[in-house]
Amino acid sequence: MTSDRPPALPLFDTLRHFESSNPFINQHLASLVCQGIDDASLSYEHALDFLVEQRHNENNYKSHRSELTTFLHWCWCEEGVSLQQVDRRLLVRYLDYCQSPPPALIGYRNVAQFLAAKGETERRPNPNWRPFLGRMEMGEKLPYRLSVSAIKTKLALLSAFFTYLNDVEYTDRNPAALLLKRAKARYAGQSGLGEETPMKAFTELQWSYVLGAATRLANEQPEQYERTLFLVSLLYSCYLRVSEVSARPGFSPVMGQFRRDSKTGVWGFFVPMSKGGKSRTVALSDAMLNALKRYREYLGLPAMPAPKELTPLFCRHRAAQRGRDVGELNANLGQRQIRELVDGLISVASQDAAADGLADDAREMAEMTVHSLRHTGISHDINLNGRPLSHVQADAGHDSIDTTSHYLHTSQVERHQTARTKPLDHLGFAAD
């Protein structure tokens, strides 16, 4: 090899080194942004977040990592498109590409994607790595082929990724699922793609356990849990996406995003860039303002933020050990840290519910994620608090009120109760 880099750059290291910042990847992402893929860094953060959810099964992690690396390379470097632009037509082109990839991207032996030179901690892309693995027979390279089952596996992996992107409302379609529906019914059934996937939102009772656990822990161990109480209060009350409150390259949330309208005196939380590059201001309830005051009082700050205040929204308890904020204490939390805090709280709340004899609720709660807080806040405001759909739509950042209306009667039990007494004949003529 004359080059020290492979023709296609690997994007995700092994589980052991997964969360370590890699300067080669960072440089690659910056280059993509300069080339017009404006959301490359944010898309990459979402891919990282998705892969972390696979960390408990190394084989699953490797499968998803391999597919996402190839797919993102094709999107960014071959087609020059963002994830949000991928539709069924483009995905068919991707499958065609995978069935006949450029010869330069086909390797004939399994090698590590990243290597560390002896005596160095920095891990570099392996120049011998290739995204496609071909076969040889008697020393001769065989024509590269993808079996039907391999294509279906690709679609299943991508469908899981797009389902995640839909869940965090980064995209609003799943082209892989559409293609899978054209496959055999047997395969479609195995993929778990039903017509209706219930939104993962806490019930009123389940949410009371979550907030109750957060409040109890904050009272008992404020140095560790006051931040968690404020975090879950904000995510629930303002329906915020994780990407809207976490640090990433080019964005670090600050207290100054809580703003008071000089004309009305009304407080809101400003989201500078959300899905589709749009900004919005979320209306704040009195309860949320009280939660903000409590957290700021704990931090030794004035009750309400000053205009353009740059205090980080969520300060670290310990200095960062790796990444772009290494050694810094006064820095925001990233997506993974926020998810871990919320997951830990949900686990405690689930155990509390189980201890009270609510086994089914505890089991359902254990399956919830940080994204469930956004779904829960929206669902509760519509179905319990009676907020107008148009108000919730604006605060949630939904492009269409149709999206917001999906949160109406999301419970199968509720639908059964409203359908149970429906008559077939309102006028009673059939009985005569």
TrEMBL record:
Pfam families: Phage_integrase. Residues 197-420 form the Tyr recombinase domain. Residues 35-166 form the Core-binding (CB) domain. It comes from the Bacteria. One of its GO terms (cellular component) is cytoplasm. One of its GO terms (molecular function) is DNA binding. Coiled coil: none annotated. Signal peptide: none annotated. Residues 410-432 are annotated as: Disordered. Keywords: Cell cycle, Cell division, Chromosome partition, Cytoplasm, DNA integration, DNA recombination, DNA-binding. Residues 412-425 have a biased composition (Basic and acidic residues). CDD domains: DNA_BRE_C. It is found in: Cytoplasm. One of its GO terms (biological process) is DNA recombination. Its main location: cytoplasm. The keyword Cell cycle applies. This is Integrase family protein. It comes from Ferrimonas balearica (strain DSM 9799 / CCM 4581 / KCTC 23876 / PAT). The lineage of its organism: Bacteria, Pseudomonadati, Pseudomonadota, Gammaproteobacteria, Alteromonadales.
